[in-house]
Design a protein that fits this description.
InterPro entries: FMN_Rdtase-like_dom, NAD(P)H-dep_reductase. This is NAD(P)H-dependent oxidoreductase. It comes from Flavobacterium taihuense. It is a single chain. This protein has a single domain, classed as Flavodoxin domain (Rossmann fold). It is 35% helix and 18% strand. It has five helices and five strands, in the order E-H-E-H-E-H-E-H-E-H. The chain has a five-stranded parallel β-sheet with strand order 2-1-3-4-5, with helices on both faces. Strand 1, helix 1 and strand 2 form a beta-alpha-beta unit. The radius of gyration is 15 Å and the shape is globular.
Length: 178
């Protein structure tokens, strides 16, 4: 029997009930036999990155965020694209991790779910490569036109998108077990 892996899932949107949050909740439901998924919805609470505060005692919200990443078997980030980039709040949170090695070799799944998302997805991949996260093509998913694919109740209504998410879950599970 496979052991259940602890996954820290980060919603890159600060909007309550965003499509990204709905996708993470669907992934939690679809993968409950594989993963124990803890969804982080507090990006807005992480203070602006300031190198002067990135000391042995950073702000408590930063310490808590880093600790969740550290203790997780893997990380899933699901984010929208804002102005051809990742949201500033997500980039801010990731900037707090640059001075650490918590993402080095950490197994990561990356999802960009937005209207277009191509540039934001490229940027997310570049940032995660820079901080040495471990992901591959199969654990990286771009969902374009997301608003028409997820219902207001959070169900993924597009069959192809649901199939892509199932493949993403399987690929992420395989990466975690390597």
């Amino acid at each position: 029997m496979k052991s259940i892996k602890k996954i820290f899932a980060i919603s890159g949107s600060t909007r309550s009930n965003s499509s990204n949050l709905k996708i993470l909740k669907q992934i939690a439901e679809l993968s409950k036999d594989l993963f124990e998924l803890k969804i982080f919805e507090s990006l807005a609470e992480i203070p602006h990155f300031n190198p002067d505060l990135d000391t042995e005692n950073p702000p408590q919200q930063v310490t808590n965020f880093r600790n969740e990443i550290q203790k997780a078997d893997g990380i899933i980030i699901c984010t929208p694209e804002y102005v051809f980039s990742i949201p500033g709040s997500l980039k801010n949170a990731l900037e707090w991790c640059v001075s650490t090695t918590i993402f080095s070799k950490k197994k990561v799944g990356l999802i960009t779910a937005s209207a277009s998302g191509e540039k934001g997805h490229e940027e997310l991949q570049l940032i995660m490569k820079t901080i040495e996260a471990n992901f591959n093509e199969d654990t990286s998913l771009l969902i374009q036109g997301v608003r028409g694919k997820v219902s207001s109740e959070g169900a993924i209504e597009d069959r192809l998108t649901l199939e892509q998410i199932r493949k993403f879950i399987a690929a992420f599970d395989n990466l975690l077990r390597e």
